[in-house]
Amino acid sequence: MSDPISSTATPAPSGVARLTAVLRRWLQALRPAPMRVDARERLRVVAGAIAGLLATAVLTELLSRHAPGVPWLVAPLGASAVLVFGVPASPLAQPWAVVMGNTASALVGIACVHLFGGVPELAAAIAVGGAIGVMFLLRCLHPPGGAAALLMVLSGVRDWQFALDPVLLNSVLMVAAGMVYNGVTGRKYPHPQLAAPTAAPAKRGEATAFSNADLETVLAHYNQVLDIPRDDLQAIVDEAGLLAARRRMTTLRCADVMSKDVKVAEWGTPLQEAWSLLREHHIKALPVVDRARRVIGIVTLADFMRGASLDVHDDWPSRLRRLILPTTTTHSDKAEVVGQIMSRQVRVASAERPLADLVPMFAATGHHHIPIVGDEARLVGIVTQSDLVAALARMDRL
User: Fold this and answer.
1) Strand order in the sheet with 349-350
2) Going by DSSP bridges, is the β-strand pair 369-373/379-384 parallel, antiparallel, or unpaired?
3) What distance in Å separates the CA atoms of residue 265 and residue 274, rounded to the nearest whole number?
4) How far is CA 339 from the centre of its chain?
5) Is the pTM of this model over 0.70?
6) pLDDT recorded at residue 3
7) Are 44 and 137 in contact (CB under 8 A)?
8) What angle in degrees, to the nearest 10, is found between the helix axes of 95-116 and 169-184?
9) Using CA atoms, how far apart are residues 219 and 224, in angstroms rounded to an integer?
10) What sections of 252-315 are H helices per DSSP?
11) Alpha carbons 142 and 104: distance in angstroms, whole number
12) In this structure, is the dihedral angle defined by the CA atoms of residues 376, 379, 380 and 384, taken in order, positive or negative?
């Protein structure tokens, strides 16, 4: 007799299946993420690159004193244009990075030609690696700088002047064009790259998702170059947190935050008993229900005040006491039970209703207590303004 567990167990994946799964994940990792920019922004970048390179070329031709046969526009400038006009907020595209990254890298490349010109392969490798090291040292990391260093080696440039004209001149003109074009088209350039300020200690009771110091700690642990400025990263994370809070607010139901131990009254509950419930449990409202526990009204402190005519200030303790205490005679000229003073117009909400729907009810209608009903409209709980605030505070701490 076969083992029933063995006969129904899922067979382990074969070696081929595991290899296929690994290969599939590796290929998926090579797929580029979709670009979250619209056609207008793409057209802005394309037009900017054209205008920037054209202006740089024309002005370089007018200002440069290059010798015949020497290029007056270096190829790495095309890559610089992609950064300056395509991602003007990137730390890799800022003016210091463009100008010093290209110029310092060109100098490194020329130095490698002098030192290792006899072995071009070695010169090329050391030029690119050395350029990266120098750019890290000068805080001007700029990817086209690696291409500038390599260009010096491949072209056999030995004249130190070449790093100034055309490399430096090209870079300065490109940055100037970027400042003008990005400013006109609504993009901040240069983009401030200041370090995030140290966050002040949070005040007692203040709930914050994270501070600038927390972000700095995470970035230090990440320990990789980010192609995004810190202020933009902070803004993106803050916006994502806000959207997450809104999503949680829409998915949170009234049943998730309501108070289930609800003190109630009936139409015939004596006023003294209802008043005692309010005072003993430190609450401000009692839902009034029928025998099937369906809400027929609500009685609040305001109803007691209205019933005792407390708008007249003279001797109000006596008038309130007279309202609450039961009449000992067979006839009474005042209210004796809850049903005679309760508010019959009461707003209720379903237990499955999103909590976000209650916000305008509390904010605009002056309600402080919303009875929550379940199946067959029976009372199952109550949501107060305090319950709502507590729920929001908990979400801030997530």
Assistant:
1) 349-350, 369-373, 379-384
2) antiparallel
3) 7
4) 50
5) no
6) 47
7) no
8) 160
9) 8
10) 254-257, 271-280, 301-307
11) 10
12) positive
CA angle 118, 123, 128 (to 5 degrees): 170
Three-state SS letters, 15-74: HHHHHHHHHHHHHHHHCCCCCCCCHHHHHHHHHHHHHHHHHHHHHHHHHCCCCCCCCCCC
The total of other beta-carbon atoms located within 10 Å of residue 19's CB is 11
Domains of the chain: 39-184 (no CATH), 256-397 (3.10.580.10)
Report which of residues 33 and 357 the model is more confident about.
Answer: 357
Grouping H, G, I as helix, E, B as strand and the rest as coil, residue 118 is: coil
Query: 184-190: which pairs have CB atoms within 8 A and are 24 or more residues apart?
Result: 185/44, 185/48, 187/88, 187/89, 188/88, 188/89, 189/84, 189/88, 189/89, 189/93, 190/94, 190/95
Q: Cis (ω within 30 of 0) for the bond into 190?
A: yes
pLDDT of the residue at 325 = 84
| Alpha-carbon gap, residue 65 to 74, rounded angstroms | 15
Residue written as tokens 């244009």? Answer: 81
**CA pair distance 35, 26, nearest whole angstrom:** 21
Q: Cα(300)–Cα(311) distance, rounded to whole angstroms?
A: 16
Q: What percent of the chain has pLDDT over 90?
A: 41
Whose CA is closest to 275, among 305, 313, 243, 234?
A: 305
